Amino acid sequence: MYKRFFIFIAVATCLASCVSTKKYDALLTDRNKIKKENSVLLAELEGLKDEKNNLLTENQGLKNDLVDHNKNKAALEKQLQDKTNELESLKLRYDTTMENYLQQIGGKNRALNAANTLLKAKETELNEKERNLENLQKDYEEKNKRLDEVKKALAAKENEVKVMKTKISKALVGFENKGLQVEMKDGKVYVSMEDKLMFASGSWAVSKEGLQAIKELAKVLEENKDINISVEGHTDNIAYKGSGNVKDNWDLSVMRATSIVKEILKAGKITPERIAASGRGEYSPKAANTTPENRAKNRRTEIILTPKMSEVMEILK
């Protein structure tokens, strides 16, 4: 650039001597213009140099940034890969967990359905039991009501038996020291008459004193029509030695019971349907047959008076 400038000056000087002043001035003007343009170009050159340096610096910064960016990119890619692997692992665990959960849910649903079915069955059973309980309660109340009625009826019968016992005791008071005893047990009246009052030894014919006792008893029985009469004959364990149809103590006990039944029917207006005869022989003793006194107690006839229980049985039905 400078070399061309000096050559231009030399040429111009040489020409100056050869050309006219006018041309010299024109050339001088052109030179000044060129100098100005050269100055501008030099300034632009310096600016371009600065710009180049700035661009080089910026380029180096960009390279450095690119290196850092590549480093960061590698780190981020590694992090991304790690996260991707972690995500895959989590997804696998999630899938496994979800599958197990769904299996558990399925099992629990089946168990819940079974439990619901069982619960419904239990509810049905409970409802049935409640209905049964209500029916049982009603039945219980009804039975309690009938039981109260039975108790009242039994109490009335017991009172009736007590009154009758009192009447019989009064009617037979003259025979109590002669082997006759009146007692009440199990809701029945027992009139026990020893053989010394009723029969001769080995006989089934009723004695006169025994007949008198039967007549007094028959008066009371005639008044109490709701009383059933059972006559039982008893003996001791000494073997009966007889002949004919009566062969042993059992036969003798039956014959004595039958004789008393017949005398009761003769003595009062008592229907035969109310009365029964039976013989127990020696098999229902009051005491052990070890002494004469005990054997005397065992040789007896018992008239057992029982209230008719038709009313009570009707309630129980």
Strand proportion: 5-15%
The SSE string, one letter per element, is: HHEEHHEHEHEH
End-to-end CA span: 152 Å
Give the class from helix and strand content and strand pairing: alpha+beta
Instruction: List the quaternary state of the chains.
Output: single chain
Strand order of the largest sheet: 1-2-5-3-4
Count of DSSP helices?
Answer: 7
Note poorly predicted spans: none
3D architecture notes:
The mean pLDDT is 87. α2 (21-171) crosses α4 (208-223), α2 runs antiparallel to α7 (310-316) and α4 (208-223) packs across α5. The longest helix has 151 residues, at 21-171. The protein has 317 residues and is an alpha+beta fold. It has a five-stranded mixed β-sheet with strand order 1-2-5-3-4. It is built from seven helices and five strands. The protein is rod-shaped and about 215 Å long.
